[in-house]
């Protein structure tokens, strides 16, 4: 479940963001946190696991007129390779439906893979609908 950032989540957010290679340095990490909190169009969202009810991921975005730029996404290593990043991106897209989700140099490949997966699911859904219509 996608949660809006609150100051209560600062330590967990910083802990999760510290997994991002560029944010290993504490002063750089603190600057990034300050940046997200000081700009109206920069937002942090947290991901709460439905199974464990723990906050296990964070996503940092820049919201523009017609796009949402994913600047950072970080998942607790214990929960990686479970498709959580795709779930987070789906929830983000639902939260901001008029905006195209895009990536930075660091996140673009993840966004591209997510879009390919989404396209496959859409195609499968169309095929299933077509098959049901023929019966």
Brief summary:
The chain is of the alpha+beta class and 135 residues long. It contains four helices and five strands; from the N terminus they run βααβββαβα.
Question: Would you write up a description of this structure?
Answer:
With 135 residues, the protein is α+β, with helices and mostly antiparallel strands. The chain contains four helices and five strands. It has helices at residues 10-17, 26-38, 84-95, 108-134, and strands at residues 2-4, 42-48, 55-63, 67-75, 100-103. Strands 1-2-3-4-5 form a five-stranded mixed β-sheet, sandwiched between helices. The model has no long low-confidence stretch (mean pLDDT 91).
Provide the low-confidence segments as ranges. none
What percent of residues adopt helix (DSSP H or I)? Answer: 40-55%
Number of helices: 4
Order of helices and strands: EHHEEEHEH
Number of β-strand runs? 5
Backbone shape? globular
Mean of pLDDT: 91
- Tell me about the biggest sheet? 5 strands, mixed
Biggest sheet strand line-up: 1-2-3-4-5
Structural class: alpha+beta
Percent strand equals 15-25%
For the termini, the CA-CA separation is: 37 Å
Tell me the Rg in angstroms: 17 Å
């Amino acid at each position: 479940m996608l949660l809006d950032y609150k100051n209560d989540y600062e330590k967990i957010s910083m802990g999760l963001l510290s997994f991002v290679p560029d944010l290993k340095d504490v002063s750089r990490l603190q600057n990034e946190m300050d940046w997200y909190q000081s700009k109206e169009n920069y937002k942090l969202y947290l991901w709460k696991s439905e199974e464990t009810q723990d906050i296990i991921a964070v996503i940092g975005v820049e919201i523009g007129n017609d796009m949402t730029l994913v600047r950072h996404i970080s998942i607790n290593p214990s929960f990686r390779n479970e498709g959580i990043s795709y779930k987070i991106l789906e929830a983000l897209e639902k939260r901001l439906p008029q905006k195209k989700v895009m990536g930075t140099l660091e996140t673009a490949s993840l966004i591209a893979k997510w879009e390919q997966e989404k396209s496959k699911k859409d195609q499968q859904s169309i095929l299933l609908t077509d098959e049901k219509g023929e019966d």
